[in-house]
Amino acid sequence: MRKSISSENIVVGLDIGTTKICMAISEMTPEGKINIIGVGTCPSKGLRKGVVVNLESTVKSIEKALEDAELMSGLGVSKVFTGIAGGHIKAINSRGVIAVSGHDKVITQADIDRVIDAARAVAIPLDREVIHVLTQEFILDDQEGIKDPIGMVGVRLEAEVHIVTGAVTSAQNIIRSVNRAGLEVEDIVLEPLASSYAVLDDNEKELGVILVDIGGGTTDIAVFSNGSIKHTSVLALGGDHVTNDIAVGLRTPNTDAEKIKKMYGCALTDLIKQDEEIEVASVGGRAPRKISRKILGEIIEPRMEELFTLINRDIKRTGLDEIAAAGMVFTGGASLMEGTVQMAEKIFEMPVRIGYPQGVDGLTDEIRNPIYSTAIGLVLYGVKNRTLTKPGRFRGYHLFGKVSNRMKEWFGEFF
After folding, report:
1. Quick check: is 241 in a domain?
2. Which of 85, 218, 230, 321 is the least buried, fewest Cβ under 10 Å from its Cβ?
């Protein structure tokens, strides 16, 4: 029987993905370090393209990941930060304007709250709900680029924000899956935002960087510049599409196609030696056969090129491709495929690197893999936003103080 805890020093990230469920349990030390003390993963059976399609299967996968993480850490957990993605995610940039209140015209937290509320006052369809309101910058009397205007003096205050919305039902199903597994959702976080906490550094965000997280069912994109997020989107295309192409093209079961992709996959056929061969399992009891690895590359390359072309089109549509002076960072399981960096540099015409989780201690050998970027990012997000909610502090990226009420409004019947 697990020992339940509610310590403020414990932060848990739960990545509910299309191909895997991953949980990371962290403990904050008195010195301020974040130690990963437990990790649990389980194949995901109940999601398609980031959206829950089978509640019971999703619950069982979460329970298995929870069991493994608790066993490793020796602790029981009750609250988690969980991610959300899927093609239903939409985002817009908005601006709010207010007149500064008070006779002395000094900016207070009340002014910050009012201007952000003004910025988020956009028409949202009834079947959608705001997930994040991410502050980009403040403008005080035409002075741009202000990150925290509290204590400054001015008459007119403006706020530039990035509003992320999602389908209410999709979010509800994720929350309900977590609740059915015996856990409470502390906050729901856009997955590319979470991943950015784990794989990007402040210099990259300031200079301008594009983050691409290639998961099993979705590809998440986030663009940063001047230290704030400028664009987010989710494409309903990921590594599973490559696996399906391999299964059909080589006439092999999906499970074997996934193994072949991980072991021998290459995004650029030019990198494959002419005489390389691989063994492919057959279906219907037939004997395995050997084929040239070049054939595998010829199946993978067009699909990866299609995915990168869609990413490029999404970024160019926003006009933000010119601000990424720090280049691109790829993360997620599919980013590990040989040739990914070379193909990306060729298509995007900018420097590309693979993003590995950083900023944590503890089980670093176990989690130093791009497949853990979102789970570790959720932990780092939780640590940072808990800290930023102390009285009198500017809440920065996320209106975290309002999250609890928002969650109860959405899913009150499940708490």
Report:
1. yes
2. 321
